[in-house]
Amino acid sequence: MPLARSLSVTSLSGLEDWDEEFDLEDAVLFEIAWEVANKVGGIYTVIQTKARMTAEEWGENYFLVGPYVESNVRTQVELIEPTNPVLKSTIDKMNSSGCKIYFGRWLIEGSPYVVLIDVGFTAWSLDRWKSELWEHCGVGVPWFDREANDAVLFGFLTAWLLGEYAAQSEDPPHIVAHFHEWLAGLGLVLCRQRQLPIATVFTTHATLLGRYLCAGSVDFYNNLAQFNVDKEAGDRQIYHRYCLERAAAHCAHVFTTVSQITAIEAEHLLKRKPDIITPNGLNVKKFSAMHEFQNLHAQSKSRIQEFIRGHFYGHLDFNLDKCLFLFIAGRYEFSNKGADIFLEALARLNYLLRVNHSDVTVIAFFIMPARTNNFNVETLKGQAVRKQLWDTAHTVKERFGKKLYESLLVGQLPDVSKMLDKEDFTIMKRAIFATQRQSQPPVCTHNMLEDSSDPILNSVRRIGLFNSSADRVKIIFHPEFLSSTSPLLPMDYEEFVRGCHLGVFPSYYEPWGYTPGGGVILPMAAL
């Protein structure tokens, strides 16, 4: 939810320079998150969904701050010059001091301004900033934790940006900085440690320790009050991360979280009760008539079917009109997100469909990002074969149509047996030979870097669902978030969800289920 302009200054204790009656009309809001224009998990969707309303509310005084990732910027951000003179002088000053700061518009609904920080460009300062973090805050970050190293760089650069903006302002600045999650939280801690004139808000979408405890098969919710948090974090080698998250929660003027259950979790694990619960908003497009939903479902389902035709070429021995598309999506946390339960259920469903000789085929998609090095060759070949067959069919159709047209022109009914000549049959036979396949359709669409230890693939091997012809349940593991620019399955998540029949989210740990909540899913009756 966007930070309301009516935010009471009583909750911002420590900001003596702020006028108690100030309505924030000339305030500037910086919203800081590692997932600004950088799709890693659900927070990306949170920020993207609320950006339009926040930009409308704050106008030219709203800036999102995130990391500069070149591959993302090329497709998502239009780089421009800042129109805010204070921000322009701030960025220029930092760039002349050895930083690389970029400014632009994020090409999403609302087109919000983004300030993107190249953390790698200032990696030479990492050891110095780590020493400063230890000296002033008592938090030590080990050298081998790359994610924590990025958090240190991002935190110091964010605090530098906010401090420089305050220094460049001619009048006493009214700055609100809203930080999301532990990866951005260090910037908040440094703002307080340096006593910058900034109102700070920290939002945790899920506690770090909570994720790790649930992933370790702990009876989490029944033992929240009994955990020795320092020991548990130390045992999992995340104590430094936990310290950064807890420090941000305690240093923030306003601490928020996204649900009541996460508020209870934060109170026990982070030792601070949230000041307010701000549930994530859903920007759901509404349609005036049911047929609009049905039309969009049919369009998206048709695109998924085209992908299926290519993926299962040579083994397309099932009726696509009697297929059900199921999916699970989100951050790759095998047990937390319920992928383990989903796979077990699919194995049992496959058995029931087979013993009952059902003609229904269930295709289950797993959309969870994992470490890969590219699409696998067999998957790409399938889409190439599908396109080749489509082109062949069109070639033969055009030749057939031309002969039919010429026959009708002379006033004769065509001799259907002569409409296709030897060359047409040769073209079609060559196309059929191209569909021959010696292997089963792949379960995973990409080359996995850790194939032998991957939880989903190991479960697939255990339950034996290898997309064989005898199986009524097929599995497609797509270890990358969906994108309309993908050469394999060019669909955004919202389109993909609309084309499926059922989303399955049996999560054990789900602070606020954005992935299941953000999709429009038609009932099974829409088939």
Low-confidence stretches: 1-14, 16-22, 517-527
Q: How many domains would you count in the coordinates?
A: 3
CATH class category of the largest domain? Alpha Beta
Structural class: alpha/beta
Number of helices: 18
Number of strands: 15
The description of the largest β-sheet is: 9 strands, mixed
Shape label: globular
For the CA atoms, what is the radius of gyration? 27 Å
Mean pLDDT: 87
CATH structural architecture of the largest domain: 3-Layer(aba) Sandwich
- Fraction of residues in helices? 40-55%
Q: Remind me, CATH topology of the largest domain?
A: Rossmann fold
Could you tell me the strand content as a percent range?
5-15%
At the fourth level of CATH, the homologous superfamily of the largest domain is Glycogen Phosphorylase B
Strand ordering within the main sheet: 3-4-5-2-1-6-7-8-9
Pathway: Glycan biosynthesis; glycogen biosynthesis
Keywords: Allosteric enzyme, Glycogen biosynthesis, Glycosyltransferase, Phosphoprotein, Transferase
Protein name: Glycogen [starch] synthase
EC number: 2.4.1.11
Helix/strand layout:
Elements: E1 28-32, H1 42-58, E2 62-67, H2 70-76, E3 77-79, H3 85-95, E4 101-106, E5 113-117, H4 126-137, H5 146-168, E6 175-180, H6 181-193, E7 198-204, H7 208-215, H8 229-235, H9 239-251, E8 254-257, H10 260-269, E9 276-277, H11 290-311, E10 323-329, H12 339-355, E11 361-367, E12 372-375, H13 377-409, H14 416-419, H15 422-433, E13 446-448, H16 455-463, E14 473-478, H17 493-499, E15 502-503, H18 514-517
Parallel strand pairs: 1-2, 1-6, 2-5, 6-7, 7-8, 8-9, 10-11, 10-15, 11-14
Antiparallel strand pairs: 3-4, 4-5, 12-13
Helix pairs in contact: 3-5, 4-5, 5-6, 6-9, 11-13, 11-17, 12-16, 13-15
